[in-house]
Amino acid sequence: MIDLLATYVHDLDPVIFSISEKVKLRWYGLSYVMGFAAAYFILLRLSRKKLWVIEEAKVGDVVTYTAIFGVFLGGRIGYVLFYMLPRPGGLDRILEDPMTIIAVWEGGMASHGGILGIMFFTLFYAWKHKLSWPAVGDGFAIVAPLGVFFGRMANFINGELYGTVTDEKNWWAVKFPKSLYENGYSDELQKGLQQAAVNNDAAGEFLKDRVRLVGDYDGYDLSPQAFEQEFLPIARENPDVLQALADHTPARHPSQLYEGILEGLLIFGLLYLIRVKFPKLWHGVISGVFFILYAIFRIGVENVREPDSEKILGVTKGQFYSFFMIAIGLAFLAWAWKSRKSFQDDMDPEAE
């Protein structure tokens, strides 16, 4: 059993298939499609059961608009504001090339930004169509965790946003070869490349022209892009190359899976069950519970997730922004308690 549960060495390819050198179908892009599709069918089901304020015929349009103006726009703006601008030279980079703002393939999007994007778009939609904003938001609060789940699964496939170093004896630990470059393990990276060059002809052929003076000794001079896009594919095809990297790669928490399960599947299951079991629940309760649960789980998992940016007041940015989400969740619950209005009240013109 111990052998079966030995530390897994990440060898998943982020590309599903390639049409050309520049046109590729990636798991990350597919994850968004799957998330939106799941959201559409679940919201359609809730609408048919009179458990969501949006009419059945309008569900498709609402999901599409929310995807574009809420998830994509909010997520990218969130990444630019929360992660890109605070970095040294971040503003200069944007001023030099404003198109960087929409270059989602460079850094991706921020989950907190996407959630806030949905929040503000539903506010606009509710105002325009004279609907209860919390009632509209409750529906998206139920399906948003599914988007988180598919996104985190794509992060795991990409081998990114991994966790902190842990004991190799933990059967759930994963070795991410990309971490050799991304977290300053330069000596270990050189050792892994040297071992790979000796063990495999393909690796040796790739590396032979890349010997450079690295520090005070001769080593292999690879850019992060060359390592990820050219060398790792060799490792995926050759077990001995992958093992050479694994011998020098620290085991880590698969924090993407933790987040996908907790912030994704668990919250979705709980909120969907609440919506079905309590059809007369006040508007805003589900949204409030979503914000609070997401924040709590994110704060917890961040303790075993490798920080992808500088900390704020001693906590990671993910934890820092999550504290504000708790405040937003409490505000929704307070509004729900004060208004005490349910979906059935909307359907009854005589209700006060």
List the helices and strands and how they pair.
Elements: E1 8-9, E2 15-18, E3 24-26, H1 27-48, H2 59-84, H3 90-96, H4 111-128, H5 133-158, E4 174-175, H6 179-182, H7 186-199, H8 201-207, E5 211-214, E6 217-220, H9 224-237, H10 239-246, E7 251-252, H11 255-277, H12 285-301, H13 317-339, H14 343-347
Parallel strand pairs: 1-4
Antiparallel strand pairs: 2-3, 4-7, 5-6
Helix pairs in contact: 1-2, 1-5, 2-4, 4-5, 5-11, 5-12, 7-8, 7-10, 9-10, 11-12, 12-13
What would you say about this model in short?
This protein is mostly helical and 352 residues long. It has helices at residues 27-48, 59-84, 90-96, 111-128, 133-158, 179-182, 186-199, 201-207, 224-237, 239-246, 255-277, 285-301, 317-339, 343-347; strands spanning 8-9, 15-18, 24-26, 174-175, 211-214, 217-220, 251-252.
Task: Please describe the structure with a list of short key phrases separated by commas or semicolons.
single chain; 352 residues; 2 domains; 3-stranded mixed β-sheet; 14 helices; 7 strands
